[in-house]
Specification:
The structure holds two protein chains of two kinds. Chain A has nine helices and no strands. Chain A has helices at residues 2-27, 38-63, 66-69, 88-93, 95-100, 108-131, 139-169, 177-193, 196-199. The N and C termini of chain A lie far apart (61 Å). By secondary structure, chain B is mainly alpha-helical. The radius of gyration of chain B is 23 Å and the shape is elongated. The chains are: A mainly alpha, B mainly alpha.
Chain lengths: 203, 104
């Protein structure tokens, strides 16, 4: 039991260190965590939450943490992991499971790659939009605006789209695709309204 | 015994795999290619289906190449709904902070 625990957390630590930092630092031009790079900071936090959700989902069933989240459990053919499912029952009685369903999908590497490729440019755009018109004295307000926008776009809209997909498909859905689609939609809307795609980026 | 050996050697093998490939290339002359690694992954997957401990391995490596588990993931409905709600929130954001023609 103990060696299994140590083994599992060693591998998870290795995965956390290697995949998150390697992908993020290579794809984001080696920026550091700072207020100057809010989008990058958010990207790193979301990456860490991805890995943490995988670690937790593997630890729950094996080491008896299932009661910790008290969520509806999707049966797994490998009988190895637990998932937070955005089913209609969870939406009614356990809304936190809907929000947590955004952070788990079977393929962690694909999630991290898509986070770099798809979700990072909208985050940069969102940072620009939130900091527009505010000077350096209003850094806290920019932080709050940015965090609130990410919470709405990523977690709330992603969870709601998972719930709608669950109702439409007749089974519990989870995953991060709704959140990525929301970020892409946000990018599309803002860029169209600011006429960037028609007239190019002026200097 | 096999289980104990696997517990002991699995993280070690992950850690030293690139080094061992380099060493084998340099000193022994065996050329380990990506195809060999994929074959190893496949055999590892097939042999260990149904046990709990290779599932993290499955999660991190094999699921990228072999998309066997597709149940429960987000459907295209989630793409469409999320995209529409994101467009709505983007319009709201532009209205809220009056960003028309101003961001660039």
């Amino acid at each position: 039991m103990l060696e299994a625990f140590v083994f599992c957390w060693c591998v998870n630590l290795f995965a956390f260190l290697s995949f998150s930092s390697l992908l993020a630092e290579n794809a984001c031009h080696e920026m550091f965590l700072s207020r100057k790079f809010r989008a990058y900071t958010a990207h790193r936090i979301i990456s860490a939450l991805f890995v943490l959700s995988v670690v937790l989902s593997f630890s729950q069933k094996r080491f008896g943490f299932a009661h910790f989240f008290d969520v509806d459990i999707l049966s797994d053919p490998f009988e190895c992991s637990l998932r937070n499912v955005a089913s209609w029952e969870n939406f009614l009685f356990r809304p936190h499971a809907v929000l947590l369903s955004v952070f788990y999908r079977p393929s962690l590497i694909i999630d991290l790659i898509l986070l770099n490729v798809i979700a990072y440019p909208p985050l940069v755009l969102m940072e620009n939009a939130c900091s527009f018109g505010l000077g350096k004295k209003n850094e806290l307000e920019v932080d709050l605006r940015f965090a609130f926008s990410i919470f709405i776009t990523y977690i709330v809209i992603g969870g709601v789209s998972n719930v709608v997909a669950s109702v439409a498909a007749g089974r519990g859905c989870f995953g991060v695709m709704g959140a990525f689609a929301a970020l892409l939609g946000y990018q599309t809307a803002v860029r169209i309204q600011c006429c960037n795609i028609y007239f190019g980026v002026p200097d | 015994m096999f289980k104990v050996l696997t517990y002991a050697l699995f993280p070690v093998s992950i850690k030293v795999a690139p080094a061992s490939i380099l060493i084998s290339k340099a000193y022994i002359g065996i050329d380990v290619t990506a195809v060999d690694v994929l074959v190893f992954l496949t055999i590892f997957e097939i042999l260990n289906v149904g046990k709990w401990w290779p599932s993290l391995f499955h999660e991190l490596f094999a699921n990228t190449f072999f998309l066997w588990r597709k149940e429960g993931t987000s459907s295209p409905v989630a793409w469409v709904v999320g995209g529409l709600l994101g467009i709505a929130y983007g319009h709201y954001h532009v209205e809220m902070y009056s960003l028309h023609w101003r961001l660039w």
